[in-house]
Amino acid sequence: MVGIIIVTHYALGEALITCAQHIMGRPLPQLKQLAVSKADDPDEIVRRAQALIADVDDGSGVLLLTDIFGGTPSNVANRLIVPGRVEAVAGVNLPMLVRALTYGHQPIEIVVSKALTGGLEGVLYMLPAGPQG
């Protein structure tokens, strides 16, 4: 099972994990999060992330999901990429996370692809439902 680590500003990752567990209806031991603050030392964050990677990697690889490309969390994730083993996607949202979890038993390349499409397809402009009636 591909491990997933959410690397985000402050508590966003924790909130996404709570929501994903609710939606999936089961514990998600392959899913961890790393909260990053502006005050954190980036080298220390990288060390903490490496420990989390070792914890969730069963040999299937690890997907890092981060929030804003160019921010500290994505810069940390970028330092951890090992193509084919540790991959990263920026712009995390709940549809992306749920899709990655749903396909976590597939090879990491598939999980990355499903995460990207889930994130993109989960962003929609909503029109009013119309009269109830």
From TrEMBL:
CDD domains: PTS_IIA_man. InterPro entries: Bacterial_PTS_sugar_comp (IPR051471), PTS_EIIA_man-typ (IPR004701), PTS_EIIA_man-typ_sf (IPR036662), PTS_IIA_man (IPR033887). It is found in: Cytoplasm. Its main location: cytoplasm. It holds the Pfam family EIIA-man. This is PTS fructose transporter subunit IIA. Keywords: Cytoplasm, Kinase, Phosphotransferase system, Sugar transport, Transferase, Transport. GO terms for biological process: phosphoenolpyruvate-dependent sugar phosphotransferase system. Gene3D superfamilies: Phosphotransferase system, mannose-type IIA component (3.40.50.510). One of its GO terms (cellular component) is membrane. Residues 1-123 form the PTS EIIA type-4 domain. PROSITE patterns: PTS_EIIA_TYPE_4. GO terms for molecular function: kinase activity.
